TrEMBL record:
This is cyclic-guanylate-specific phosphodiesterase. It is found in: Cell membrane. It comes from Methylotuvimicrobium alcaliphilum (strain DSM 19304 / NCIMB 14124 / VKM B-2133 / 20Z). Residues 23-276 form the EAL domain.
Length: 277
């Protein structure tokens, strides 16, 4: 009926309105969370096949007063769209520098911290200057940091990418391509870039022991990267079988729940000290 139709339409509008309101509210909350620095970095070990540490990845969480810890997938996309990723990304890098400074002062040899950098942040004109400034201010070696960029970010504006990557390399910062294999970049493209590492996405690792195609893709990535002199790390390693399979294909660095979940810096330190004994 007509009435029913009208109700459907108004319900439709209402739900759009509600979604928009919720989004606005989240954005507002996020804005003040950034002002108050209501975030925490978790650290996940990167290891050799025996679980010996070779580095770490910093993964952000929002410490929300009412909702508890909020995962990055719940707010990073909103932060990107609202332009808040720039101040948030700067906080992440500075916080990582402060953490590395503490680890060095306490005699903890954490080889590096890998940091996720979003497209909007990387495209800022002063991106490299911000990195250089933080490194200088916290007096940490640039070689202790790895910038993780996704394929999409890298190939989106290749001239700007090359320029910034060279500047980062000049500082001594390392560069990794995150979620590798999920984008559309070819290794021919990538060989023109000063890359240190390719990170195989967990979607390939998940089915590696059962999906013949994923196994072939991984093997190809590993061989080509090594021929180009680029290191390979696999993320999302959850089982011994996955780890062994990857190792047999030539992968030497692993990250995933099989070795450890991401942890607070305090738990991470305990984990590292245990491994040192
Ligand atoms: P990512 O960079 O691909 O990070 C890997 C994600 O996989 C992390 O989720 C990590 O906790 C999770 N993970 C680690 N090991 C395993 C495993 O064995 N199995 C499975 N299923 N998952 C595993 P998390 O911490 O929720 O982060 C999600 C995404 O949020 C990250 O994906 C990254 O794209 C983004 N992100 C995290 N921190 C930051 C940040 O500081 N800045 C920016 N721009 N993005 C960030
Ligand atoms: Ca990452
Ligand atoms: Ca990934
Ligand atoms: Ca990612």
């Amino acid at each position: 009926s007509k009435t029913k139709g009208r109700n459907t339409i108004s319900f439709f509008h209402q739900s759009i309105q509600e979604a928009a309101d919720a989004r606005m509210f989240l954005e507002k909350e996020l804005r003040s969370a950034i002002e108050n620095q209501d975030f925490i970095l978790y650290y996940q070990p990167q290891t050799d096949r025996f679980g010996r540490l070779s580095g770490s990845e910093a993964l952000i969480r929002w410490e929300h007063g009412q909702k508890g810890l909020i995962a990055p997938d719940q707010f990073i996309p909103v932060a990107e769209e609202a332009g808040l990723i720039v101040p948030l990304g700067i906080w992440v890098f500075r916080e990582s520098c402060a953490q590395m400074r503490k680890w060095l002062d306490n005699g903890l040899d954490i080889q590096h911290i890998s940091i996720n950098v979003s497209s909007k942040q990387f495209r800022q004109q002063d991106f490299v200057d911000q990195i250089a400034e933080a490194i200088r201010q916290y007096e940490v070696p640039a070689s202790r940091f790895v910038i993780e960029l996704t394929e999409g970010v890298v190939i989106d504006n290749i001239d700007d990418t090359v320029k910034k990557m060279r500047a980062l390399k000049h500082l001594g910062v390392k560069i990794s391509i995150d979620d590798f294999g999920t984008g559309y970049s070819s290794l021919t493209y990538l060989k023109q870039l000063p890359l240190d590492e390719l990170k195989i996405d967990k979607s390939f690792v998940r089915d590696i022991t059962t999906d013949f195609n994923d196994a072939i893709i991984i093997e190809t990535i590993i061989n080509m990267a090594h021929n180009l002199g680029i290191d390979v790390i696999a993320e999302g390693v959850e089982t011994e079988a996955q780890k062994d399979f990857l190792y047999n294909k030539g992968c030497r660095v692993f990250q995933g729940y099989y070795f450890s979940r991401p942890m607070t810096s305090a738990d991470f330190e305990v984990w590292v000290r245990k491994g040192e004994r």
